[in-house]
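New to this. Please check this record:
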Amino acid sequence: MAGLAAHVTDHVLPHVPVRQWVLSLPKRLRPYLHHNPEIAGAVLRIFVRAVRTTLCRTSPGAPRDAQLGALSFLHRFGSALNAHFHFHLVVLDGVFSRASADEARSST
């Protein structure tokens, strides 16, 4: 785990602030996600969409097509090795769009 964290920090994420979002589900729903990857994927997509919508709404001047940069990590166990299906999402602080990337390139 420490090796993966070092790799992500050094080679994957740009050197910008990041925030961690965690989605913990009610105990009654966890078995469904644990045994069905399609449901788990759908829940993750909803979670990412909700974070993106929140960031777009709170970013002044963000274009409608703005996207977020994020990595998701699925955790199946809690700190006591109990079954605890939950998602961690590491999100770049802010939203990005193709237009802003093109403008940044042309100004250099």
